[in-house]
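Hi support team,

I've been running sequence recovery on a batch of backbones for a student project. Most finish fine, but this one hangs at about 90% for roughly twenty minutes before it completes. I'm not sure whether the input is malformed or the queue is just slow. I've pasted the structure tokens below so you can try to reproduce it. Let me know if you need the job ID as well.

Thanks,
M.K.
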């Protein structure tokens, strides 16, 4: 883990600045045509490293599933926040993503005194925070949050596959694959499809 010191750079600087409860937060599910957007917030112990943790997109599903229980048990605190498909359609995906992150931070077992937020926007909370573009590759706590969010959402989509068969949710997890688009065109949208999204709204009959 030669990259671990770099992944702790933001956390180390904030600890030196006097912050003691630094939460990294990230979301999964902005791009899919169906299902919720899921966010996680993770507070690590000062100086804590978790071998193997990096941007969830760089890990296989098996690697993410292996790291999930380690993060859940070894981190100082983990919070999860969800905005469902109806909320996404109502407030748009960007606002829903930030709201899911807000809920994740509020769900932490211990209050955070600083937030490291993946992306270019901050969370609607009165907590000191910093938006970090590509933060899931630059901050260990954000990377840990990206894994928790991704695994949580993937598991939800597998459950939805059982409720709404025929769309292939267990495979593509709601993302706009060719097979998913074909299923929407053939079957029409199901209850968890995002009706405001292109690729879905064209097939909504209301």
């Amino acid at each position: 883990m030669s990259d671990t010191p770099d992944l702790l750079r933001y956390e180390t600087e904030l600890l030196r600045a006097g912050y003691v409860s630094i939460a990294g937060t990230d979301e999964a599910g902005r791009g899919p045509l169906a299902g919720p957007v899921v966010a996680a917030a993770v507070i690590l112990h000062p100086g804590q490293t978790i071998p193997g943790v990096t941007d969830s997109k760089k890990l296989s599903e098996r690697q993410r599933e292996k790291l999930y229980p380690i993060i859940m048990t070894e981190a100082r605190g983990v919070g999860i926040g969800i905005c469902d498909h109806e909320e996404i359609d109502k407030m748009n995906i960007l606002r829903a993503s930030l709201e899911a992150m807000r809920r994740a931070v509020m769900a932490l077992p211990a209050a955070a005194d600083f937030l490291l937020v993946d992306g270019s926007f901050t969370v609607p909370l009165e907590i000191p925070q910093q938006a970090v573009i590509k933060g899931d590759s630059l901050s260990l706590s954000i990377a840990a949050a990206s894994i928790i969010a991704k695994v949580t959402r993937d598991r939800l989509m597998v459950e939805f596959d059982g409720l709404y068969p025929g769309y292939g949710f267990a495979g593509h997890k709601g993302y706009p694959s060719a097979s998913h688009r074909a299923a929407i065109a053939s079957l029409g949208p199901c209850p968890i499809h995002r009706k405001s999204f292109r690729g879905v709204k064209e097939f909504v009959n209301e």
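--
Follow-up from support: It reproduced on our side and the slowdown came from queue contention, not your input. The first strand starts at residue 22 and ends at 28. No action needed from you.
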